[in-house]
Amino acid sequence: MKYFDFHCHPVLKQLFSDNPNIDSFIYRSDVAGLPRACSDLPSIIETQTHQSQLAEFNDEVIVGAVLYSVERNVAETVIPLRSFLKKASQFKLSEKLLQDIVQNNNKPFSDFLMKRTLNEYLEASSSFHILTEESFKSALPKNKVNVFFTIEGCHSLVDSPNFCDATNKYDPDDILNNLGQVEEKVKVLSINITHLQQSSLCNQAFGMQVADSTVFFPSGNGFEDDGRKVVQGIFDRKICVDVKHMSYKSREDIMNEIDSGKFNNVQPLVCTHAGFTGVSFKDWAGHIQLKKPLSGALYLEITKSLHTKNNPKRPGCPTFNASTINLFDEEIVWIVKNGGVIGISLDRRILGYVDKHDDDPIGITGMERIVDKEYFSKSEWNVLGINDSEIGKAIDDDDCLFMNELEECTETSIPQRDEYFYDHLLNHIKHYFQVCKDHGISIAVAQKQITIGTDYDGLINPFINMPTVRRMADVKSYIRMNLKFFLKDFDNSEKWSDELNVDTFVEDLFYNNGYRFVKSRFQM
């Protein structure tokens, strides 16, 4: 089958080995017995978009290969995880490499991005076909993975410092000069301005759920002038900005400033591995059940609405993750109306699934509602003018997901559980079209601006019935067979469901939309 992935890391996990071999694998069985039985680590380890797996598609395959350098705080967090691997497998997660990253002896740009990552793609010509403008003048090869590049976080484009604080800041000129070095070798399609830890360019959304995530709490306030300089330099190079990992305020800033004409040579904004909150930002605070100051940030617990106003089928109706790392309704509309493309992530957390065995699935309040938890910048909360009187106003227990309903969806039978997992994807597709339809965007236009952006190999939590790219044919088949029935189960989408040709849309979603967009970017 033809396949497109907007955002994945085909070689990242292999690069953590003492002696990297990009053709090797990390297996579930590399995890020691107790962690394998008691945690999600085996599934996180197994998540793959390996070139040998992609070769099994026997057709045109295009992937957005991510160039990403591990941040200092991320490396520090990963080091203890080595103890969860079998001793015979611990070489696959090099302590020396991780310590070198922490100490900045392994430089983010020159060592990890250029030498350790990009060079592996350039040297593996038997596996990867690096796309150029010339590539699109004939049929793409089917015996290689066709690759374009994205850069995840501008921290990957500097050598020093490898973290930001009151005195350490990223130099915009360094970022743009080093980007030029990358462009001398390959075409870069999009860049995330920030990633998981604090940046001097813009504030990040919380996205690192580990035992002690304090160092990943957002503390900034939208875009900074250095960030605006970087964005302008990116636009001048005809590269798209990827808004994933920006805080809501940062995303609002860039969209508003584009609208007001502050940037020249504006390129489309993309969100390559997205999830949706399921609501408009103006309604978001109404779903928050707890706001609590914690370690310089605000700890939030956000309930999971079942959107009962649309009479969904229950039990079995999936929910969204309304954490602000995901896109609000008005942001979906803005991206589509301005020519961008959205890739749907396959991280179960991003798609809204909370497991009963996750850390505190009902939060710390003692209530039985399933919640999403995040940490939000105090500065942004104040600037955005969120009124505390709005907190909790939209919470209706008849509309909230509770533990008993979650268990009924996941523990009755494996087929029912798998259907519930797949339906989180259908729910995102349905919501995307509904939001577009409600804001005057036709189904015919909307269906050309959404694709798949798995984030496989990016240390995500996959659904256990779709852990690797090998299962994408099953995902595609499920969408083809069930999307129309899913749309007709809701009062609002039933009204327009017959406007969507599902067979055409599925081919667009899994290949055609991505192909068209990437081709257009190479022809700029």
TrEMBL record:
Gene3D superfamilies: Metal-dependent hydrolases. Keywords: Dipeptidase, Hydrolase, Protease. GO terms for molecular function: dipeptidase activity. SUPFAM superfamilies: Metallo-dependent hydrolases. It holds the Pfam family Peptidase_M19. The keyword Isomerase does not apply. Its EC number is 3.4.13.-. It is an enzyme of class 3 (hydrolase). It comes from the Bacteria. InterPro entries: Metal_Hydrolase (IPR032466), Pept_M19 (IPR008257). Signal peptide: none annotated. This is Membrane dipeptidase. It comes from Chryseobacterium kimseyorum. The lineage of its organism: Bacteria, Pseudomonadati, Bacteroidota, Flavobacteriia, Flavobacteriales.
